[in-house]
Amino acid sequence: MDTKYNPKLVEEGRYKKWLDAELFKAEDHDDKQPFTIVIPPPNVTGKLHIGHAWDTTLQDIITRMKRMQGYNTLYLPGMDHAGIATQAKVEAKLREEGISRHDIGRVKFLEHTMEWKEEYAATIREQWAKMGLGLDYSRERFTLDAGLSDAVKRVFVEMYNKGLIYRGERIINWDPAARTALSDIEVIHEEVEGAFYHMNYPLADGSGVIEIATTRPETMLGDTAVVVHPEDERYKEMIGKTVMLPIMNREIPIIGDDYVEMEFGTGAMKVTPAHDPNDFEIGNRHDLPRINVMNEDGTMNDKAGKYAGMDRFDCRKQLVQDLEASGELVKVEKHVHQVGHSERSGAVVEPYLSTQWFVKMEPLAEQSLDNQQTDDRIDFVPPRFENTFNRWMEGIHDWCISRQLWWGHQIPAWYHKETGEVYVGEQAPEDADNWTQDEDVLDTWFSSALWPFSTLGWPDEDAADFKRFYPTNVLVTGYDIIFFWVARMIFQGLEFTDRRPFNEVLIHGLVRAEDGRKMSKSLGNGVDPMDVIDEYGADALRYFLATGSTPGQDLRYSTEKVEASWNFINKIWNASRFSLMNIGEDFSVEDIKLDGKKSVADKWILTRLNETIEEVTRLADKYEFGEVGRSLYNFIWDDFCDWYIEMSKIPMNSDDEEAKQMTRSILAYTLDQIMRMMHPFMPFVTEAIWQNLPHEGESIVRASWPVVRPELTDDASKHEMEQLMEIIRAVRTSRTEVNTPMSKEIPVLIKAHNDMHLNNIESNRHYIDRFCNPSELVVSLSPEVPEKAMTTAVFGAEVILPLEGLIDMDKERERLNKELEKWQKELDRVNGKLANEKFVSKAPEKVINEEKEKQVLYTERYRAVKERLEQLKA
């Protein structure tokens, strides 16, 4: 191993070796239990961001661990064609060349787009490689693959035949710049300063006016009614009358509907069924006409009267001026509100009446909710997100699935050129010349909703991968797309496979900037994961992302914490180099023997290793990776590096060959187990170190996951070692407090509380000699304690440093009083817990026993400190 940890050298070329050896390839037999994760397919629109890095790191940790645990693990890669985003980018590229898609036609445009896709797909694969993702590229899929396209057609046709897909006229999100319908997730709501425009609608009989307020006055040109609450005393008598629509001079009715909130505004609303989803529903209930006053590009059409041809916002300005001139404008109030913008084009989204294809959601949502009451339910981690899922399913509305694009799955519907008859099928009609296929494509989310099963060979239900790896085990994703993707995969999986698409959904949050703000291009606070890898290495980034948050919570990016991860890896690297130098090049797996004579340090580190393996495995199975990181850090940095490695120098520098051989065995075994536990988090550096250790097998990727070996646990060694470490810490702390360096010898007295503790300390005095540098070491049940000394209570003993001429007795009394207060607080806390009947009745026996042990320990320390204070007062 190199003398310094260099992530670039460690990571360079290693991923290719893994791929060449096909270490990530799932097996084509059923000897092992399968475990499957399908990657949430990134859009083929460019570079992966830090959120992708977090998402895929968690997936890779889970799949690497399961592979090591002996599962036939499939981590399936793939990408999404990203309809609107991809088409927009390709069209922009064509515009730079002075042409449009209409100039070259649909076929040529799709060829251009596929070339563009291949270029960016290669970039994404390079980024996956840089992250070290253990993906099975032999099974990589793309949402426009032939197999996935077959699945999309099958689903569309079957849903249409079942009445779950229909074509109709409804209000949808419309992007006037891209001239296409949008899904809700493609609408970004931004806070903007607008206005409430108040205007009077005069009653047709001349008896008065009704005041109306709106934020979009241009839509009033399409008003077909005014609505009030039927119980509103102000307007009850007006229901059934008519008003004259200002400017247009069209007579429209006053209707009653309990949708109106009497307390809000004037209690009266304009109804524009073609330009507002709520108005659309009111219009349906009252059989109102739908008047669309806009063109698809956001200009006003001929139904807008004299405003025809004007841009919608220019029309707004002119209309307000005209209302003011006619005396019908009451007032204009500034109003800050959320306005939907197209994620792709930036245009203000228009609620727009349009003929589109829709999925009837109510029966699918009901099926999904019912399934959550069965054994085939999907478990959400954390569980609170099931409520989010349920709320969305309970309030769901029909899903607009058609898009006015060329890039995507063209809708498998044909219209007869003469009769207008609609034919829906997986193949074109036999007399295809007489039919025209629908120009639109399906929403990208329609195909990605099939991702867990379409990627595995469905609709061929006999496909080997579908039979072996479906349903998948875990979906890992952010909480921001529970509605848009997770829910859709659930209802499509249940509808077409009769099974849940995944057993669990692990939900994480968003990666935020260091100040807590959301990362965005406009704020310029985004972080490119590839830049971080170039500076600190993939392992440091992965470890930070994996251990920096708990399930469901957001993660704040921190350069300082990435550096801390790098420092941790560097510590592991240096500890490994020391261990390997002492193990020796000729030491093999067969030489690792752990059944001989061991020191207390040997027994203790093996016991702590067992505890760490058990804790890490338990926490990782619950996806508590932040806690896994804490457990690994404590064991590796504190126990192994700071204590055991230092203690191992004593036998390694002695003439005791038996002790040396045992130390080599424990160093080799412990380091091997550490590398295996760390491997899912830090794949590159653990492989590099493991290859230098005595090992069997080609790669740590396929090494077995550590398991607890009960025969290596020695509980007594924990108490013995804890006492020893406390003694050493006490001496070092006391030296620091009186500014006495470790290089200067001083006498050390240890008062043991009983014969057992006396024997333990005596048998380990060589460690105290090595780490405390005493001029003399006295261990006794009743040593002669000088007046001027520092005393520290430790487990089973007191450490006394005679410091004549070095200690201020007033300060020592002050220190001891503070220590007495500390132990009193700890005693009060633990006594309170044990006196609490609820705690004692509900807490596990192990937890109660731990609190009782603390009670004994704190009582002992309180007594020792109090005794020493009384001695000083005497």
UniProtKB/TrEMBL annotation:
Catalyzes the attachment of valine to tRNA(Val). As ValRS can inadvertently accommodate and process structurally similar amino acids such as threonine, to avoid such errors, it has a 'posttransfer' editing activity that hydrolyzes mischarged Thr-tRNA(Val) in a tRNA-dependent manner. It is found in: Cytoplasm. The lineage of its organism: Bacteria, Bacillati, Bacillota, Bacilli, Bacillales. Residues 602-749 form the Methionyl/Valyl/Leucyl/Isoleucyl-tRNA synthetase anticodon-binding domain. Keywords: Aminoacyl-tRNA synthetase, ATP-binding, Coiled coil, Cytoplasm, Ligase, Nucleotide-binding, Protein biosynthesis. The gene is valS. Belongs to the class-I aminoacyl-tRNA synthetase family. ValS type 1 subfamily. Its main location: cytoplasm. It catalyses: tRNA(Ile) + L-isoleucine + ATP = L-isoleucyl-tRNA(Ile) + AMP + diphosphate; tRNA(Val) + L-valine + ATP = L-valyl-tRNA(Val) + AMP + diphosphate. ATP binds at K521. The C-terminal coiled-coil domain is crucial for aminoacylation activity. ValRS has two distinct active sites: one for aminoacylation and one for editing. The misactivated threonine is translocated from the active site to the editing site. Signal peptide: none annotated. A motif ('HIGH' region) lies at residues 42-52. The keyword Protein biosynthesis applies. One of its GO terms (biological process) is valyl-tRNA aminoacylation. Residues 806-833 form a coiled coil. This is Valine--tRNA ligase. A motif ('KMSKS' region) lies at residues 518-522.
